[in-house]
Amino acid sequence: MLHNDLLQIKEKELAGRKPFTLRCCMAAGCMSSDSKGVKQQLEQAVAEAGLQDQVEVRGVGCMKLCCQGPLVQADPTGVLYEKVSPQDAAPIIAALNGAQNNLAKSDPNAPFFAKQHSIVLANSGIIDPERIESYIAADGYLALHEVLNEMTPKDVVEAMVKSGLRGRGGAGFPTGLKWGTVAKSAGAKKYVICNADEGDPGAFMDRSVLESDPHAVLEGMAIAAYAVGADQGFMYVRAEYPLAISRLQIAIKQAKQMGLLGAGIFESPFNFNVDIRIGAGAFVCGEETALMASVEGKRGTPRPRPPFPAESGLFGCPTLLNNVETFANVAPIYRKGAEWFAGIGTEKSKGTKVFALAGKIKNTGLIEVPMGTPMRTIVEDMGGGAPDGGKIKAVQTGGPSGGCIPSQHLDTPVDYESLGKLGSIMGSGGMIVMDETTGMVDVARFFMEFCMEESCGKCIPCRAGTVQMHNILDKILQRKATARDLAKLEELCDMVKNTSLCGLGQTAPNPTLSTLRFFRNEYEELLQPDKFGPRGTDAATAQPTAATQ
Amino acid sequence: MNAAVATPQKNQNRIQAVLKHASGDKRFKILEVHMKKHQFRQDALIEVLHKAQELFGFLEDDLLLFISVKLKLPPSRVYGVATFYHFFQLKPQGEHTCVVCMGTACYVKGADKVIAAVQAHAKIKPGETTPDNKVSLLTARCIGACGIAPAVVYDGTVTPRVTPEAAVEQIKKWM
Q1: In chain B, what are the domains?
Q2: Does domain A352-438 have CATH number 3.40.50.40?
Q3: Fold of the CATH domain A20-106
Q4: Taken in order A99, A105, A110, A114, is the CA torsion positive or negative?
Q5: Chain A: nearest CA to B172, how far in angstroms?
Q6: What is this structure's pTM?
């Protein structure tokens, strides 16, 4: 495989394009509403109308507006059909020639689409994720070729530093710095791992990226491997995402056949292989040291750092670990330049961020916006606000590690620092909107129950603390708690946050703390008068007796 | 002293029994081929457990012992890994499975009510199977179908926007 071969594949693919294309969403959300049946019917209707030379029916990845699926978009007219059923196939084909129909359509120029800025999702909903040629036609693997032929590993790291990309898994560690550390670590064998263990309930960005554009992630991993000097990669994917796993398997097989993975990529001395490791349902495996233990076939328990994975990671070798979305940003950065990327977003948070918009909101689905976009733009303009005339009460970001941002702070720009100041985190990108009917204490208990069940049990603050905090939250909801219990809860939150071994425990109190900060009245409304006096200060007047006990 | 000597012997006997039992079952052969594909590497344990569950439906003790012998791992390690991850089932499942997603988006859209309805109708708690082995009720952390919440997976098929009534209808069909 050489540069010319890539261009030839691209030309051949583009020359084979037909005048009309019907793009049919084949991501997990739409598939559950029978988009497979829709695609089959469309193909059949094209054949019946004898239009095989005119119309291509292409299965594509996520088309973003998940709540209106299955979605079908016609090119070049751009008409976007929503909630398509297999019976709609014939009228859709007829409409290509200008016929009218009454099918439900979404406006592709509505704010939900118009305000998006696609880098990671640029190919999502456009290319066929199961055909490598489709990715190559969208300039795929050109960045890898350029990096291998024109840049030294040191240049690659420097460009990454210059781009200002920060880890999209949640913590926001500068990616260039991480690459540089692994590159400098001594070791004959190094590894690159892609963290696709999207455990945050309410987040589905990584699933969509893997289902819609798996090659972009593979290309990003290969570039990273070249930069740090690794020759083996692992893709750690959740078992709950069977479609993403099968698309990745197809993508790896095709890339190997074309010589874009494997030995001597682009006839250079660079070798890189990727293996898939399937998770088995443990939230803690999103933590890097736990993830590596799981890749080694062990129980996914974290270990203290240092040593950091960059020095001693998988099998004791230096290991680079990045999130799916981080890797998906890599190829565009080298294709268009680090300066271009650094020009998007805010001073400290560069580029775009993909969010999974869900919950009590009109338009649920995937959005990608430049960093620094006000949250109000996302939930009100793009999301369309709460359904049925309801009022938005809070927006939850960061899942069980994040917090709830109340409606009065909706003008906050979405970047790592601003969200941190409000006691939440950027997180991996789950954004759950809550309306007036959602009780915040209930939400806090929901997340605490999650952390309690997902705690691996290795360190005591997290193992025992989450259980105790959950008990108190339960007691509050049952209207049996007093101010004393609330004080105990806050004390425990502080203790677990500061003494836990890994991120799971350290962030487990966040949903409780942030709801306490902004919705304290909801907690206090549920409290009962303390028979022993408030917080025990008035003990003299209310001596505990057998009756009150 | 006697007990200490007898225990390894007892273990050996059990292992022999397991291997004998395995030789008569084709699924063990398929599993062994799968292990061979991974060159019997110990770090492929999770991959092997996935395959074993796919073949047998759940992981019983003898199966775990078989894997530990073949991968030359202590049974404690195999059992420890199998019990750590939620995905691995150590009990047999019913003919049909109903997995209710309990991710945040599904929760705020009423997945708890779906579970309560199914629970009340089938008289089983999440994680349990009806006495006639027809239906298992399970919960999932998040299946990533948040755009179509609340989602329920019936026998591997994801169903969007499920109401408590619709879920009970589906369970009735199976029972």
Answers
A1: 2-84 (no CATH), 96-174 (3.40.30.10)
A2: no
A3: Glutaredoxin (3.40.30)
A4: negative
A5: 21
A6: 0.93
